[in-house]
Amino acid sequence: MKLNIALLAGDGIGPEVVNEAVKVSDAIAKKFNHEISWTPALTGACAIDAVGVPYPDETHDICMKADAVLFGAIGHPKYDNDPSAPVRPEQGLLLMRKKLGLFANVRPTFTFPSLIDNSPLKRERIEGTDLVFLRELTGGIYFGEKGRKDGGETAFDNCVYTRAEVQRLAKKGFELAMTRSKKLCCVDKANVLETSRLWRETVQAMEKDYPEVTVSYEFVDAVAMRLVQWPNSYDVLITENLFGDILTDEASVISGSMGLMPSASVGEHTSLYEPIHGSYPQATGLNIANPLATVLSAAMMFEDAFGLKAEAEAIRAVVNKSLEQGVVTEDLVANGAKSYSTSEVGDWLVANL
Amino acid sequence: MKLNIALLAGDGIGPEVVNEAVKVSDAIAKKFNHEISWTPALTGACAIDAVGVPYPDETHDICMKADAVLFGAIGHPKYDNDPSAPVRPEQGLLLMRKKLGLFANVRPTFTFPSLIDNSPLKRERIEGTDLVFLRELTGGIYFGEKGRKDGGETAFDNCVYTRAEVQRLAKKGFELAMTRSKKLCCVDKANVLETSRLWRETVQAMEKDYPEVTVSYEFVDAVAMRLVQWPNSYDVLITENLFGDILTDEASVISGSMGLMPSASVGEHTSLYEPIHGSYPQATGLNIANPLATVLSAAMMFEDAFGLKAEAEAIRAVVNKSLEQGVVTEDLVANGAKSYSTSEVGDWLVANL
Ligand SMILES: CC(C)[C@H](C(=O)O)[C@@H](O)C(=O)O
Ligand SMILES: CC(C)[C@H](C(=O)O)[C@@H](O)C(=O)O
């Protein structure tokens, strides 16, 4: 099979971790007789530096022509202290999501037995956790009308959802639940927000099409609590953009394996795969960043974008092996123990595939 | 001193826990030579049942005339499955906040040494945690225009803030930080939302008036993570209404002492004190609910509404004693150990003041 993949390495440690995922993907392709063509493109702070905008049209064209996008991370500290600066890396991210129609952000949180003691939660709370958030990514308050009135003294952000947007996301949620334990949780704030009431009534109306799926409806504040108390009581959760932003990040730290969590953003035109960790500027160029989340994002890409399940499983298996054998970067080793560099971990994965 | 207090017991276990707080408050008043006049009033589901609305005008009048309000909890399961029902207990809560101008919700999260092992977090993560959220309570997306368009197919909720609203809340935050460790964290989403940019620029402009306070600005998703990872790295946090709803609930479960957490809603006309736990319908009438959060809310009331610090400290001391000696309700005892009823705990507190 010919796999045509856009490669958006981005900023900070992005290029380093993406590099290892490319090595592993190429090795898998060779083993299973596929041919990958990678097309690199600029996004984020590096794109601002090079061409003045964080998501250039050329990058967009490359993504539109690709079968899938592998993404590193974006962001640079020089933009951190002024969130109202006219051009910022995050704007590129939002523009990319909107223009590529990446409406469903798939964010699994699961545990690795060998890493469970890294969790801030007690073992008995976190053991067995295996949940997936589907966060709506192209609507809501992120993209509604926003601005100032009264000479700048009043600010507003409008949150808007259409029934069709909710249906599109919820459909993916029901379908995903059918492949798992058939439990779906719709997270909203329907006791206060009209958009949440639209979410809830839309999902309620879809229940009859998926009679095997048990749906629960929970308020976002209650979910923020239960994620810490009993994370393993959840399976698939669907929610709107802003709630998803907050809850997926909360969920990511409970496992103790945040540095290993992959994600996908599923779109109308193409889908994008990226580690959930950020650009980690302090580590840039030091060859110490953990590449496993990006490698596991590539595994998601093989499985979901190309239907290549055996290839994905082979990648996951070798990642597990590296964890078991302690061939990991310094963030995953207890004090004093031997650690490996970013590229050494990548090399080891390739050699042990 | 004469203390004129409105008593809004509400629904579920509200009346039972409020009853014990009244007993303890009366005993303290006697000891310190104050005279409390309690004026009961209806709110919540019980008000809907009695007079058809969740926050009757008569209740509002009583609150307006009072020096402080002691509140139990509201909510009843018969309203749980239909968040768009025309009359709901929560509407009373929102109306009460708005009409009483309760603009600052003060939500401490702290640990009790004897309860630390109840936390879902590991001991070393939670030990020493002592933080306070100030949540803006009468603005934002809760109270902006909301509705439907396109024949019901599109829903919207507008989030609005004025500079004056932000200043009012932030001022309380700076003042509170001055009485504590002089660290203030402003939680926003200024990389996406215009209202958050207004929050951030307003707080930034106030920094010069409080040169001793160190202010940090963090995105809401990052705070949702750090609350689980390093809760004791925070001191005072200020944030808008919806972020506060989610984050204060998240924070409440990390301590392991959720059933003990008090809160205050500070207003223009009066202030309201309530336990953060809800109406816990399953326990209604069983005399098993934990009254300590309400008792500690009464302590906050003595200190903040009336400036009676010694009285507040006396209440906190006897609560600590009950915890140390294990005179607690069943939610706080390990399996098998002896527990006490709601009223027995209250009686013990009164006897040991
Ligand atoms: C950088 C920011 C705009 C972005 C978001 O809020 O969506 C990030 O937090 C994320 O979750 O991908
Ligand atoms: C019941 C609900 C409207 C309320 C809120 O969202 O403010 C509650 O969750 C709270 O935090 O007091």
UniProtKB/TrEMBL annotation, chains A, B:
Main location: cytoplasm
Binding site for substrate: R97, R107, R135, D221
Swiss-Prot/TrEMBL catalytic activity: (2R,3S)-3-isopropylmalate + NAD(+) = 4-methyl-2-oxopentanoate + CO2 + NADH
SMART domains: Iso_dh
Gene Ontology CC: cytosol
Site location (Important for catalysis): Y142, K189
Needed co-factor(s): Mg(2+); Mn(2+)
Residue positions binding Mg(2+): D221, D245, D249
Gene3D superfamilies: Isopropylmalate Dehydrogenase
Cofactor notes: Binds 1 Mg(2+) or Mn(2+) ion per subunit.
EC number(s) given by UniProt: 1.1.1.85
UniProt cross-references to Pfam families, sorted A to Z: Iso_dh
Subcellular location: Cytoplasm
Occurrences of domain Isopropylmalate dehydrogenase-like (ranges): 4-349
SUPFAM superfamilies assigned: Isocitrate/Isopropylmalate dehydrogenase-like
Function: Catalyzes the oxidation of 3-carboxy-2-hydroxy-4-methylpentanoate (3-isopropylmalate) to 3-carboxy-4-methyl-2-oxopentanoate. The product decarboxylates to 4-methyl-2 oxopentanoate.
Subunit structure: Homodimer.
PANTHER family: 3-ISOPROPYLMALATE DEHYDROGENASE
Family according to the record: Belongs to the isocitrate and isopropylmalate dehydrogenases family. LeuB type 1 subfamily.
Name of protein: 3-isopropylmalate dehydrogenase
